[in-house]
Amino acid sequence: MHCFACQSAIGPGDRWCSKCGAAVRQPVDPDSERRFVTILRADVVDSTGLVAELEPEAAVSRLEPALAAMRGAVRQFGGIVSKELGDGLAAVFGAPIADDNHAPLACHAAIELVRRVGSLGDPGLQVRVGLHSGHVVAYMVASEFSKVYEIGGAAQHLAARLETAAEANQIYVSEACQELADGHVRFEFLGRKALRGFGEPLPVYRVMGASDLSSWRVRRARSVSRFVDRTTERALLWRAADRVAAGRQTVLLMGDAGIGKSRLAHEFAQDLRAGGWRLIDVECSPNLQGAPYSALKRLLLSILDTSARDQTKTDDPRDELPVVQQRALDAILDLPVSDPQWDELEPHARGRAISDASCAIIESVARRQRTILLIEDLHWMDRASDAVVATLSGLQCPDLLVLLTTRPNGMPVWIASCRAEIVAMRPLDDNSGLAMLADMLGPATTNEDLKNRIISHTANVPLFIEEVCRSLKDSGMLLGQWGDLSLARPVDELGIPSSIQGVIAARLDRVSRQERSLLQIAAALGPRADQATLRRVAAVPEDVLQDCLTALDRAELLVRIDSELEDSLEFRHEMVRQVTYDSMVEKVRESIHASILAALETDEAWTDGPDTLCYHATRAKDWRKAFQHGRSAARKCLVRSAFAEAVDYFEIAMGSLDKIPVTHARETDAIDLRMEARLAFAGSGRVAEALDLGSEAERRADAIGDIERKVAAMTMRAGAQNFYGTPVEAVTIGEDVVHLAESSGNPAWRNLAQYSLGQAYFLSGRYDRAEKMLATARVHLAGLTASAPIGTTPRSLLLLCCMMNSVTHTVMGQIDAAEQLQQQAAAIAEETGRPYDRVAAAYSGGWLMLGRGEPAAAAAILENGFVLAQKHGIRLFVPVLACRLGMAYLEQGLFDRARGMLTEAREEAKAVGYTSAVLRSSIYLALATHRLGDVQAAQNMLREARNTARQQGFSGLEAEALFGEAVVTPPSDPEARAAILSALRATIAIAAESGALPLRHKAEAMLNEMQATGDELS
Question: Which PROSITE patterns does this entry report, sorted A to Z (predicted)?
Answer without folding.
Answer: GUANYLATE_CYCLASE_2 (PS50125)
